[in-house]
Amino acid sequence: MFFSALWKRQAREALRHHWLTGLLIALVVNLPALLVQGIAAATGNDLMTRVTDLLYASLNAGGTAVDQERLAAGLAALRDASGVWVMQGLSFAAWLLTPCLTIGMLHWLQMLLRKQAAGDVTAVFSRMGTFFKGIGLWLYTALRVFLWMLPGLALNVAAMLPLWLSDASSRISVLSAANTTVGLQAAAMGITAALAVMAMLKYALGAQILADHPEKGPVEAARESNRMTRGKKGMLFSLYLSFLIWYLLEITLVSVMMDMMGPVIAMMAEMLCSLAISVYLNGALTGFYLTALRSESAAQPEGEAETE
């Protein structure tokens, strides 16, 4: 936690006179997704909202069963709703654009923390050349996280064995097996989450490396992130954990403003808080990256001397 406070202080000092630029850059990074969400909500073409409304509309009067015919008709209408699928395509396009914009923001933060001229809001477009590399890094990271989660997922399946092997003719046996399965699945879910967090920490610096060295490939950046975070995952986890209080404060503030000033003001406050926390978190993460980079540079001559 001491190091987390150090990296957060570095981020605050670097951002002292650049908060407005940082907020605008974060807004540009999130703007494609925000625009798509806003258009989908305004036109009624949000897929999740339509599916939720359909499920509620398919329930019978008592809310205890689903009307299969009504559900099938609703799904058929949803399948033929071109606006919904246009919004899904736009959401996919926004997702494709976000990685390179995020890498541009990280490059701007790296320049700030190195006390170099970082530029204005247009710095967010400074790494557009990493468009395909950013997508590749995101996909490679998702694949590696999924592979790390496989043992936990296998444990989730194995947790069902007591229920499958129980004596179906005995109610007591089934209830006992169900209780055992619930306990085992809770433990398996915890293990799966822990494996996922460990994997994400391994590759957390991949975007930082691409921002600093755009000539590198996505797999090379991910492997370098794995190397740089070796032995430092605890510190990196504590850095992420230290921002939990900020997210809790954001939720509290938005809830209070919702009651006092209405949903519009509350949504604006939520967006502003989210952007500020995003800039602050990425600034602190950039401080971690630069510290890890300096420690690697300091250790390299010793390694070379030992080799000689």
Map the helices and strands:
Elements: H1 2-15, H2 19-43, H3 47-57, H4 68-79, H5 82-113, H6 131-158, H7 161-164, H8 171-202, H9 206-212, H10 218-228, H11 233-241, H12 244-261, H13 263-307
Helix pairs in contact: 1-11, 1-13, 2-5, 2-13, 3-4, 5-6, 5-9, 5-13, 6-8, 6-10, 9-10, 12-13
Distance between the termini: 38 Å
Number of strands: 0
* Number of discrete helical segments: 13
Shape: globular
Strand fraction equals under 5%
Q: Mean pLDDT, rounded to whole units?
A: 87
Q: Tell me the helix content.
A: over 70%
One letter per element, helices H and strands E, the order comes to HHHHHHHHHHHHH
Structural class: mainly alpha
The Rg value, from CA coordinates, equals 24 Å
Low-confidence stretches: 303-308
The main pleated sheet reads as: none
Descriptive account of the structure:
Helix 2 runs antiparallel to helix 5 and helix 6 (131-158) packs across helix 10. This protein has helices at residues 2-15, 19-43, 47-57, 68-79, 82-113, 131-158, 161-164, 171-202, 206-212, 218-228, 233-241, 244-261, 263-307. The protein is an all-alpha fold. It has 13 helices and no strands. Mean pLDDT is 87; it is low at 303-308. The chain is globular. The longest helix is centred in the C-terminal third of the chain and has 45 residues, at 263-307. The two termini are 38 Å apart. Helices cover 81% and strands 0% of the residues.
